Amino acid sequence: MERLKNQLITEKSIRLLQQNQYTFHVDSKLTKTEMKNWIEQFFNVKVEGINSSRVRSKKRKKSNSTSSTSKKKMIARLRANYLIPFFLN
């Protein structure tokens, strides 16, 4: 899926793994329903819920113009007894 950019590994995301929650950077146009369906089909798990947020990066000044990009972060909460084996446990 080209809309799923990468998994997010931070201190917080590693703590969330203990609660069976997985964090991804995704395309900003992706909806929660599309993300839920893709995770359930690709990893063969059941998703209980998804939280999403837009993360703004720092503004950077390059010559005469300023640029800033925003990313979308989604946290997928899986049902009990399901896990994604590619992540750290």
From TrEMBL:
SUPFAM superfamilies assigned: Ribosomal proteins S24e, L23 and L15e
GO terms of molecular function: rRNA binding; structural constituent of ribosome
Location relative to the cell: Plastid, Chloroplast
Segments of this protein annotated with the region Disordered: 53-72
GO biological process: translation
Major site of localization recorded for this protein: plastid
Top-level taxon of the source organism: Eukaryota
UniProt KW Disulfide bond keyword: no
InterPro entries documented for this protein: Nucleotide-bd_a/b_plait_sf, Ribosomal_uL23-like, Ribosomal_uL23/eL15/eS24_sf
A Gene Ontology cellular-component term: chloroplast
Key words of the record: Chloroplast, Plastid, Ribonucleoprotein, Ribosomal protein, RNA-binding, rRNA-binding
Function summary: Binds to 23S rRNA.
Family named by the database record: Belongs to the universal ribosomal protein uL23 family.
HAMAP family referenced in this protein's UniProt entry, alphabetically: Ribosomal_uL23_B
Subunit-level organization: Part of the 50S ribosomal subunit.
Protein name, as recorded: Large ribosomal subunit protein uL23c
Organism for this UniProt entry: Cyrtomium falcatum (Japanese holly fern)
Gene expressing this chain: rpl23
